[in-house]
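S1.2 Input.
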Amino acid sequence: MATMNAIAIKLDNREQTSQTHCLIACFYLNLFSIMASWEDGAPAIGIDLGTTYSCVAVWKHNRIEIIPNDQGNRTTPSCVAFTDSQRLIGDGAKNQIARNPANTIIFNAKRLIGRRFSEVMVQADIKLMPFRVIEGPSDMPKVVVTHKGHEQQFYMEEISSMVLSKMKEIVEAYIGGTVKNVVITVPAYFNDCQRQATKDAATIAGLNVLRMINEPTAAAIAYGVDNKFGGNGKKNVLIFDLGGGTFDVSLLTIDGVGKFEVKAVAGDTHLGGEDFDNRMVNYCIEDFKKKWNKDLTRNERALGRLKVACEKAKRILSYDTQVSV
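S1.3 Output.
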């Protein structure tokens, strides 16, 4: 029987998880340096397109640099909001959740991308989304928003492309030039449709995808890059990667010279911090209905505020035993 030498666990620390995935995406960029880097003076980039937060990095001067956004943060909310005057992406969009929930796509594009509108899981998700999701051509979900006084519809690929464009904009402002090539991390259990839809989103954003890396594998390699599994002989490593919207597990062997071999992968593309939030939201909705005989799901603004409050309460419960919502 094989011995488990190490277990690496990445829980729902969304910002840290994104940075780990992004670091390893750029590690792969070094491997692609001959064919990908410094085209017209611009390096290729690595992006972790997360359910809740995204992160971008560049391989430069033989090291990885995670690029901060215009707010000085190294991670950016994977959030898009539409107002009467503008489209907001990232931190500005997240601030719209409570006041403008019907036109704020909060952390959900990754859960719907590459999925069918008729899927049971998609229908369950829609019930807790404060914005409208309708059935588009070929059973593809589309979001409906009001932007500059007009109703507009978007596919999930288009929403994800807006987030990717924001990450591209962040790194281009940092290096003072344009970028085209990218390595993107995705959940291990993303199917072919989800992977292709993510690639399509990158294309819309003007990016050329060199490779997609499974997120738990990225986490494992990141630990290897940090020399946490150095030494002689092979080591068996079990990686738990619990993010904002997905959960992946990978079993790998790592030898003393840094060679990685993936033995098995498993996971759930629909289990993460968002599900913890939704459990709390459902509990509060039912409790409110019993006490006041009112259904909060019929009030988009109230539902948006409740989701924000539950997410905040979950964070407090990480270090406290009780919290009021």
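S1.4 Remarks. Residues 221 and 284 are 40 Å apart (CA to CA).
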